[in-house]
Design goal:
Blueprint (H helix, E strand, L loop, with lengths): L9 H16 L4 H18 L3 H14 L3 H17 L3 H14 L4 H20 L3 H21 L5 H9 L9
């Protein structure tokens, strides 16, 4: 049974009904509609913690989806799953692919920064200070880009950049 028929909560059901109506009205190809169904089912599975199912749906959506902007969000969501599973290298790959298609995706920039910051903390705890500084500098670079796109977001990152003297640096 498709995930869209399994949704139990009112908001998910409402979204599904509205999305189905919109898809019937909009002049989109059968392939684009199918890609959206996979993407929607992927988001639903992801929100329920069903990451394997979500990945299957996202990969199917990637095969069908042609629009670069829409593909960027699919890639971003795949990155989210890998990051939540601790597979940071894979997450970084997908975030970067998303940014190649949509450079105005501050949440991908933020998530890249979060991973580099985590790696910096890990290196500092292992007393690998050169690696730590390098990871923190990378985190700062990506956070500055995210903040530039979304100045009212990422307040904790802005505070970290200020307290570490990295807020206004233009090079790392």
């Amino acid at each position: 049974m498709p995930r869209s028929q399994k949704n139990d909560n009112f908001i998910d059901k409402t979204f599904t009904v509205i999305a189905d109506i919109v898809l019937k009205i909009l002049p989109t190809s059968k392939s684009e509609k199918q890609a959206f169904y996979y993407y929607r089912d992927g988001m639903s599975a992801q929100s329920e913690g069903e990451y394997a199912e979500a990945l299957e749906n996202y990969y199917e959506a990637l095969i069908l989806e042609e629009d670069p902007y829409d593909r960027s969000y699919i890639l971003y969501n795949i990155g989210l799953i890998y990051a939540s599973n601790g597979e940071h290298t894979k997450a970084l790959e997908y975030y970067h692919q998303a940014l190649e298609l949509n450079s105005k995706l501050p949440q991908a920039l933020n998530n890249i920064a979060v991973i580099y910051h985590y790696q910096g903390l890990k290196a500092a705890n292992q007393k690998k200070y050169n690696i730590s500084k390098s990871m923190f500098d990378k985190a700062a670079q990506y956070w500055r880009q995210a903040i530039n796109l979304a100045p009212n977001n990422y307040i904790e990152a802005q505070n970290w950049l200020k307290t570490t003297g990295r807020l206004n640096k233009t090079t790392t």
